[in-house]
What does this fold into?
Amino acid sequence: MRNQEVSQQEEGAVAIFIVIFFALLLSVITLGFVRLTTQDQQQALVTDLSQSAFDSAEAGVEDAKRALIQYRKTCNIALGGTQCQAYVNAFKANKCDTLSGDLSGQLGLSVDGQGAVRVVTNTADTTLQQSYTCLKVDLSTADYIRKLEANTSDLVPLRGNAQFNAVTINWFIAADAGLAPGSQYTLPALGGDYSPTELPSVERWGQATPPVMRVQLIEHDKDSFSQAQLENDSSTLFLYPSDSGGVANNEVAFTRYARKSPNEPVQITCTKDTGGYACSATLRLTGGLTLTPNKLAYLRVTPLYKGSTFQLQLNGGDVSFDGVQPSVDSTGRANDVFRRVQSRIRFDEATGGYPENALDTTSDICKDFAVSSEPLTIGSCQPKALP
It folds into this structure.
């Protein structure tokens, strides 16, 4: 009987320990689920606030665009006017209150007591306390950057804050070729299928090969110009990438080519290293194409064979572009989360809208022309089929 009682006591103790163990296990599982749920909720809140702060910063960029458009309009009407000077002073101050200061009334912005511009869908929308707290606009930029698709052009005003006599063009980055880190560009070697004098077909141009860049300099007097002046003060260069044998120091002088003279591509030595731009060339403005204060100049850039990101610098970056591609630095807020956005703004009305071609066709062009006193049926001309 005594042994039986001891056994029953031991079985009871084991049962108690099992209950305690399962209770502890369930508690740990429950606390784990609660912790995961809390973390997910916090992460969702942080993500929502981060996106809202980014949206606030983007709203600041859009307001900056409006300010730049008004700046162009008012200064084109009256360069020395009061409104024009107000925009110039705000941009040159380079302070966080570029728009929330004297320009807020002209742009119709809602500014709070701390000087931040509220970003709301309606006057009662204060849930996330969205606003952009700091916004700066800089009309002077050290370079001009843009990405173009193949066979499309960009017309860039060559306007600096000081005199310059050279334009540096860098083009093609790893992202343009879809290259992974550690990969290399494919550069054409001398001879073979790739030759500046015998260009290969588009299909045979390598995916990781930088494009041929066509750069056209266009100059004219500020006050007036004629077609003859445009032709005499214009020059076109074709910059051909290669692995070696390029011109000395990759420096090319803009030369006026006669209408019937050969204009062969200029060979530029590029690098296979994907850490930056694959190719770089310095274009010298010399002779009759030297830029003077009474001239306006534009550079038309066209990548051939494939699209490319390109960068332009005046005198190697020593001279800044003046009002060509202003930069906007905007910091947005949502509650206690901040996001910062840096953007470049391009004035499309000044540099865009120009057609690529007067006529574009994938076949031959066939024209009917006849002089007759009798009725004439047009349509006998048939274009040749391409091989």
Notes: The radius of gyration is 33 Å. The first helix runs from residue 2 to 77.
